[in-house]
Amino acid sequence: MTPISAFRAYQGLTPAKSSAGFTLLEIILVLTIIGMAAILVVPNIGNLDARTFSTQIRHANTLLNFARRTAVVQGQPASIEFYAESQEENESVPSRTAVGKWQSYGAELFFIDSTEREKVVEEKIEITFFPEGGSTGGTLIMALDERREAIEIDPFTGRVSTGIENE
After folding, report:
1. Residue 136 in contact with residue 67, Cβ under 8 Å?
2. pLDDT per residue as tens digits for the range 142-160
3. What value does the CA radius of gyration of the chain take, rounded to a whole number of Å?
4. Coil vs helix vs strand at 45
5. What is the domain extent for residue 60?
6. Residue ranges in the chain whose pLDDT is less than 70
7. Is the dihedral of CA 47, 50, 51, 52 positive or negative?
8. What is the pTM of this model?
9. Parallel, antiparallel, or unpaired for β 98-103 and 78-83?
10. What is the DSSP-derived secondary structure letter of residue 131?
11. I want to staple 144 with a disulfide (CB 3.0 to 4.6 A). Which of 1, 53, 54, 132 is the partner?
12. CATH code for position 108
């Protein structure tokens, strides 16, 4: 026995052991941080479809208002084409009066005309605005899962309004 180890044995000390593992405090701290991150990240993943749907609604509304202004300012009819499914650029030939197009990304598209008939848009529908301020009018209904949003186009004034569709 060396003099140093004899001294430690006398004092009741053992040679220093290497620290193996984590303390309970470190484990609790890491789990708390992971839990806080999960609270922030998980809800945002679930709302991705809802945000995409809201973006599609805003885009359609913007295009309709743009066509309305264009028709009044230029003094010529202006229209927007709504496609029920995504189209390749070369697939569709726009009409002469088209100033924009909207493509669905997973949302179903319905149209209610001025006679209150609802029909499913299978390919495309065109909404035209006239220089006097009128339009072809109707209500576009976009649906994704349980959400349904309606965009109403007044046939006399061309005014565009958006709201939740009541069944």
Report:
1. no
2. 998 888 999 999 999 989 9
3. 32
4. helix
5. 48-164
6. 1-19, 42-49, 86-94, 165-167
7. positive
8. 0.67
9. parallel
10. T
11. 53
12. 3.55.40.10
